[in-house]
Amino acid sequence: MGLRPVRLHYLIVPIAVHSGRKEGVPAGPGTKVEGTKVNENKKTWPGKKTSVKIEFAIWVILLLFATSGTLAWFMLRSEKEALTREVTRRGVALTQYLATHSIDPFLTDDKLTLATLVADVMKNEDVVYALIADRDGRVIAADRSELIGNPYRRPPGTYPLDRPEARTYTWHHDAAGWVIDIGIPLILEERTKIGEIHLGMSRATINKVVQAAWQKAMGLSGFFILAGLIGSIVLVTTMLRPVSELTKGAKAIGCGDFDYQIPRMRQNELGQLAETFNHMTRELKTATEQALEQERIKKELQVAQQIQQMLLPKHLPEIKGFSFGSLYRAAKEVGGDYYDFFQVGSNRLGVTVADVCGKGVPAGLLMSVARSILKSLAPNQQSPVSVVRELNRVLLSDFSRGLFITMFYAVIDIPRRTILYTSAGHNPGLIYRTGSGEYLPLALDPPCLPLGVDGSGVFEHLAQEKKVSLQKGDVLVLYTDGVTEAMNEEREEFGVERLQKTIKQYAHNGRNNAEGIIHGLDLEISRFCGDLHQNDDIAVVTMKVE
Amino acid sequence: MRKDGSITIEVRKQDAQGITVVDVAGVVDTGTTLILDEHLSALLREERYKLIINLAEVTYVSSAGWGLFISLLQKTREQQGDIKLVAMSQEVRNVFNMLAFSNLISAYLTEEEAVAAFRQG
After folding, report:
1. Minimum CA–CA partner of B64 in chain A
2. pLDDT, tens digit, for every residue of B5-35?
3. What is the pTM of this model?
4. A413 and A448 belong to one structural domain
5. Nearest beta carbon to residue A491 from set B4, B66, B70
6. Domain residues for A409?
7. Which residue does chain A place closest to B69, by CA atoms?
8. CB A228 within 8 Å of CB A67
9. Residues B75, A401: C-beta atoms closer than 8 Å
10. Nearest Cα residue to A197 out of A420, A450, A11, A387
């Protein structure tokens, strides 16, 4: 076929524009389907509570649908455009061919040749119609003979070919469906338009190919969506396994099973979460155990405190001509200080105040040991020094190194009103003579070691006893260093002087009994210390000769 | 008047004869005794059994502190060593005397006297 390349040059440009715009709409079904799907899913979305698995699967499907739909749409559109271009190009070539060869027969009015030319073009299976019209629009040759002689009826919406150009237009042909109408004016000597040629190219082939491609794309999309669905469910199940493990763990802990450990997982975020969870469980277990342990210790300390309170005398002695008082304050739940009264022989009273080195339960335990030994030794022994020597001997075997007890022990002869006392490294006792207002310190010279530090004979040697006669109005005060070392907020110690002053003050020139004096002392110590917590135990015993 | 709860310990001098001088400053109460114990026990682990404890800057020694000195005394003497207390303040010496510990623990006014006593054996 002989073509004029000059014509082709400007024919192709507008085709793409037309087909691109017009063909876009019918390619839409994919978008439409997608749209309805989205709406369906949206309906189920907000109301019901869905599992992560379903949610994830829905999102994956939506994503795949959108991706494959968009991809297919674009691919099909460009395929369709390419096909349209190809069909149009062929159509234009045919029209061109018709135009080239029909000028001479047209001028000579050789209708037979024109008909032959039209029939020739019509052999092409994509050509729906072909016709040649004169300058006035009357058909002079066509594929269908009934059109000849009639005015040419242009496709709806088409345009007059007033310029020497070819135009294409897609329109709906009643019989052949969508066709591409290609119009070319017949130009004589490149100036005069003498008629026009119209050729209709069927879009059926394009539609068939696109349809087939669309079906293929749909099938492929369906496959990918299904694969995506299965994949997403598998993936989510795998990924959610740690979550269900964590849930199981949380439930177990909720039920108090702190030994529960989540199995090891892959080292991703969930694996780290599981590890953190396990760590938390262990910490929680430790914390709970510690809390329980503390609670247990607290309870045991309370029991220990009760036991210690039981070991201290419940009643003060009631002896005619004497009054007694006592004061005990433990710095911790259990104290290491101790005081006691017990009968020695028939008419003697043993009085002791002691201090175990250290504080708390260990001190309290040591004290209870010493107390038991003392209670078994003292009643049958009138000599206090014999008691402390024996006590030292027994305690040495029991005491671990670095522990000792200081003790003041006095035996009071009731009828004779004398005191026989000894001290094992303890604070000197005091006798306040209300008559003279003077103090008589009760201390050994040289002083003796505490109990429990020496087994080499030094203690035996140093331990002595001294006798003092009591006078009417005498106040005996035995105390531990917790009294004299009691501190106020200015870090001053209560001291011996303040102790002596307080005793003197509350003795009221002999009008107060031992209990009244000790109440006064308690008051003064509290007043002195204020709110400051005391570090040491306090034990005081008073006795007054009435 | 005494401060509470603080102690500084300095192991100052360790000579070839195994005499170690430990400077203690502050208060030796129930709590700080544990700290002092750690330092002194570490010296025993290093087999330093001749200890001079300088108490010049110590204002108070509790019964727990004295208990520590007594236990150290027994431990060092078992290894032919000893502890010697040096430069006790009046307050500390009063308690030391009351407990009659001078019968067990050697005490000196100056560090030189204690070192000399170790040298004489």
Report:
1. A358
2. 688 888 887 777 789 999 999 999 888 898 9
3. 0.60
4. yes
5. B4
6. 313-545
7. A402
8. no
9. yes
10. A11
